[in-house]
Design goal:
Length: about 325
Amino acid sequence: MPDFNPKFMPPRVNEFCNYLRAVKDSSALTLQGYQRDLRLFFEFYAHSNNLIQENDSHENEIDLSFIDDKILSKISLNDIHSFLSYCKDTRGNTSVTRARKASAIRGFFKYVSDRMGYIDSNPASQLQVAKSKEKLPKYLTLEQSRELLGSVEGPNKERDYCILTLFLNCGLRLAELVNLNIHDFDLVNKTLVVTGKGNKQRMLYLNKACVDSIMAYLAVRPHDGLKADARNALFVSRLHKRIGRQAVQLMVYGYLEKIGLDGQHYSVHKLRHTAATLLYQHSGVDVLVLKDLLGHENLSTTEIYTHIENKQLREAISKNPLSDESPNEDNSNSD
């Protein structure tokens, strides 16, 4: 759960996070992000308006519990703009990071004003943030994906190969993979139940590669001496605990480095992009089906993969050997 002590947070922020947890079913990571962004905003506001002194801290954490509805009602759109300018100029936050912070602020004030009526007006109702420049996701080619799978070796080769296979075939998120349990896998129906963002579950139908890799791993998966949190876990670490996010990241980085992709901005999440891109390019899968497979909330998130296809089509046309030919002016008026 959060890194912050609730008693030092503004009470309405704690209430807002309880609302997100109970009603919106937001994940722990989402809640941590909202708390972190909102805490930074209120620290900035309190300092800017001389509401706190440098020694107003407890346990290395500034006490913001004094921020009540009266103070919230004084916050203006200009205060929010000042905070976002501070994030850009002083903290060096990217447009994507600032947009995330703006989203947290918008959500909070919509809750305390529009939903609960704790303050009369919503200072963030007209908040606008410059759109970040859209970037096409980076992904491995089909050949690179095969090379990555072929690079697996070592004492945990069955486990590592299975993890890479699920990433590349199913497009799992990192958090989804490490939270998989043995009972999520159904050998009879060849399915896998995945718990995604907001604890929403989706069922994936597994291809032969996925089934074979899971069965090969289960045949060697440790059973004795497992820690309590690993008894039901599908993937187990060398310490006999449920495998963690960092362990998976390091493992993936190691194999990417082995095939020469280190330092090229590839990551675990790029394997999810790879699965989606290869599915769209080579299987002819409908974008709506791809949306459900990836567990996307909005279709616009999935449509980025159609942009990849369009970009490749443009590049293919430009590489035509006749692409540089131009009309011959001497023959333009010929009979």
